[in-house]
Amino acid sequence: MAYISATQNGFADRVRAVIADVLDRATRRKVYRSTVEELNNLSGRELADLGIHRSEIKRIAYEAAYLN
Hints:
By secondary structure, the protein is mainly α. It is built from 3 helices and no strands.
């Protein structure tokens, strides 16, 4: 009986880890999309004031979502 209990706990832990990974990926993707959207909504002058060129938006969003 202990073997079954330990096996079930291991399976449950793996399921929790998969769910946590899926939620983490979804959260990071949401941060990426919202960052791109917000920066794309800025005018060229506003981006220049921030020191950002429009071609850098996707890189900046990637860094915000996946490297932090």
